[in-house]
């Protein structure tokens, strides 16, 4: 048998092995997502009960908390690589054969989000992620408002984020998130996954809706300081009548989403 004939199976085996490693790294991205949501959920609950440690209840705050842990820098690099692998997988799926327009937009959007999280984790470990999510939102809104029709752009972003929040709530309530799983587990485990996903998506949707409203208010009042990230949205909820109870429920929901993300690492349809 010729060398070229024997090399073809070897090349195929190497490609399969590389694909398996890539898939495992991508699934590790869901584990990283779960860890972040658990930490954010705990931070939100602490805000609800008035015992906040000063940690921002957002992705930056969670990543900074991890950076302060033993071997924190190594942990953040692992998280960055996992998110990068998941982003690459989603972006590749967006342009893969057989993807319809809806799947393309969904996969591409998810890929951009995971890519941003990978960049955020890397920037924090490199010491370049010092700003809070709220200050970033205000700076972003302020920059847009200086452009022609800037208020319209900021308002449009607000409406878009509000729509994303409503979509999350509907996805949770109807449990259509189960379509993202290749095979949902059965029995009590499956029931637990459905409950965690429902609570998690609804809580995330509520938080996104508040962020969207705050961006819309910033556009209406031409005041970029009204724009807030997740931490500011939680503070706004806490100021409402019954706010601490609402905030505590949102915190529990974020933690539930974190646990659901662990299930996605095993059962997600990639």
Automatic annotation (TrEMBL):
Spans through the membrane: 30-49, 69-91, 112-132, 152-170, 201-222, 242-263
Residues covered by the DUF1206 domain: 28-95, 107-174, 199-267
InterPro entries from the UniProt entry: DUF1206 (IPR009597)
Record key words, sorted: Membrane, Transmembrane, Transmembrane helix
Superkingdom of source: Bacteria
Keyword Membrane: yes
The protein's name in its UniProt record: Uncharacterized protein DUF1206
Species of origin: Serinibacter salmoneus
